[in-house]
Specification:
By secondary structure, the protein is mainly alpha-helical. It has 13 helices and no strands. It has two domains: 174 residues, no CATH class; 178 residues, no CATH class. The protein starts with 8 loop residues before the first helix and ends in a 5-residue tail after the last helix.
C-alpha cells in the first residue's frame, strides 16, 4: 500500500510569497470600479495577471507532485523561484506598459527554472512514458519563453496582446497533450490538497476584504451578510473537496488543475465586487450581472470537479436545483433595490445550494 504523501514545509513556505501577490492582484481589480462606470480593461488585466500567477504556481507545484526529490538542486530552484515571484509581484501595475519589461522577464525566468528542472529529470529518467510527457511539457514551456522574449521587442500597440496569447498558450496548451499527461499520473490526493491550500489563500484575501467594510465604531448588518456570503462559498468548496472528490484516482489531474484557475479568479472577483459596492452603496445592472456570473463560474468549476472525480455521481435533479437557484440569484440582484436585503437573499440562496450538495453527498449516505 502506497504511503500517503503530505504537503511539505517547503511547499507551504513557497506558498507564502503568493499571499503578497494576491494582495497586489486585488489592487488591479479595484481600479475596475473607479468612477461611475465599470472599466472592462481592468477586468481583463486582472484575469491575465491571475492567469500568470496561477500558471507559475501550477507548473512548479505539478513538477513537485510528480518528480520532486529532496536534493540541494531542487531546493535552490524553489528558493530562486520565490525571489523572482517577489519581484514579479512588485511589477503588478494597472499601467501594464510601465512595468511590462520586468513583468515579462520575471515570468520568462520562472518558466525557464521549471523547464530546467524538467530537463534534469529527463536526463535521469529511464521511463519511455515519462520521457514523452516531459518532452511535451518542455515544448510548451519553450514556446511560451520564446514568444515572451519576442513580445519584448514588438511595438507597444501589440506586445501586450502577443504576451497574453503566450500566457494563454502555456496555461492551456497542455490539454492538447492529454494522452501523454494522463500516462504519467499525478499523486492526486497530494495535488488536490495543494490546490485546496492555494484556494484558501484567496479566501483569506476575501476575509481581509470583509474586514475593510467594518467600521470599528458601528458594525453594520451588510458586513455580517458579506462575511456569511464568503463563508457560504468556502463551505461549498470545502464540502465538495472533502466529501465529493475521490482522491485515490489515477489521473493526470487536468480538470482539477485548470478549473482551479476559474475558481480563484471568481473568488477574488466576487469578494472585490462586493467590497466595492458595499463601500459606495452602488447597485447597478452591471453589478447584478457580474456578481451572478462570478458565483456561477465558481459553482461551474466545482461541479466540473465533482462530475470528473466524484465519489458519488451528480444527478440531473441536483444540477437543475442549482441552476434554478442561480436564476433566482440573478433576478434578486436585478429586482431588489436595497443592497443589504439583496445581499441577504443572495446569502440565503448560496446556503440553499450548499444544502442541496450536502443532501447528495452526506445525507444520502446515512
Amino acid at each position: 500500500m502506497q504511503k500517503k504523501r503530505g504537503v511539505s514545509m517547503l511547499e507551504l513556505f513557497y506558498d507564502l510569497i503568493f499571499v503578497f501577490a494576491i494582495s497586489q492582484m486585488s489592487e488591479v481589480l479595484l481600479t475596475a470600479f473607479e468612477g461611475e462606470n465599470l472599466h472592462m480593461a481592468a477586468l481583463v488585466k486582472y484575469g491575465i495577471v491571475v492567469l500568470v500567477f496561477w500558471s507559475v504556481w501550477t507548473y512548479q507545484t505539478v513538477f513537485i507532485n510528480r518528480f520532486f526529490k529532496a536534493s540541494l538542486t531542487n531546493y535552490i530552484f524553489i528558493l530562486i523561484n520565490m525571489f523572482i515571484v517577489m519581484i514579479l509581484s512588485q511589477s503588478i501595475n494597472i499601467d501594464f506598459q510601465e512595468t511590462f519589461t520586468p513583468f515579462v522577464v520575471c515570468t520568462s525566468m520562472l518558466y525557464t527554472c521549471v523547464l530546467l528542472q524538467y530537463c534534469l529529470t529527463l536526463f535521469y529518467s529511464n521511463s519511455v512514458l515519462e520521457r514523452q510527457f516531459i518532452i511535451s511539457i518542455i515544448l510548451v514551456l519553450s514556446i511560451c519563453i520564446l514568444s515572451s522574449i519576442v513580445a519584448l521587442i514588438l511595438p507597444v500597440e501589440i506586445r501586450i496582446v502577443f504576451y497574453g496569447i503566450s500566457i494563454f498558450t502555456v496555461s492551456f496548451l497542455p490539454l492538447a497533450f492529454r494522452k501523454s499527461i494522463e500516462s504519467v499520473p499525478v499523486d492526486f490526493e497530494h495535488l488536490a490538497e495543494r490546490y485546496s491550500l492555494f484556494v484558501i489563500l484567496f479566501f483569506g484575501e476575501s476575509i481581509i476584504a470583509v474586514a475593510k467594510t467594518i467600521n470599528i465604531n458601528s458594525i453594520h448588518m451588510i458586513s455580517i451578510v458579506y462575511f456569511l456570503i464568503i463563508i457560504a462559498l468556502f463551505s461549498i468548496y470545502s464540502l465538495i473537496y472533502t466529501k465529493g472528490i475521490e482522491k485515490k484516482k489515477e489521473t493526470g489531474g487536468l480538470v482539477l488543475i485548470h478549473t482551479h484557475y476559474f475558481l480563484i479568479l471568481s473568488i477574488g472577483f466576487v469578494s472585490l465586487l462586493l467590497e466595492e459596492n458595499i463601500h459606495h452603496q452602488i447597485k447597478t445592472m452591471s453589478f447584478s450581472i457580474l456578481l451572478t456570473m462570478g458565483v456561477s463560474l465558481f459553482l461551474a468549476a466545482l461541479l466540473a470537479n465533482w462530475i470528473c472525480y466524484g465519489v458519488k455521481k451528480i444527478k440531473m435533479s441536483d444540477i437543475f436545483i442549482i441552476v434554478t437557484l442561480l436564476v433566482v440569484f440573478l433576478m434578486n440582484n436585478l429586482l431588489v433595490a436595497n443592497l443589504t436585503v439583496c445581499l441577504g437573499i443572495n446569502m440565503i440562496l448560496l446556503w440553499f445550494i450548499f444544502a442541496t450538495i450536502y443532501r447528495r453527498l452526506v445525507i444520502a449516505n446515512i
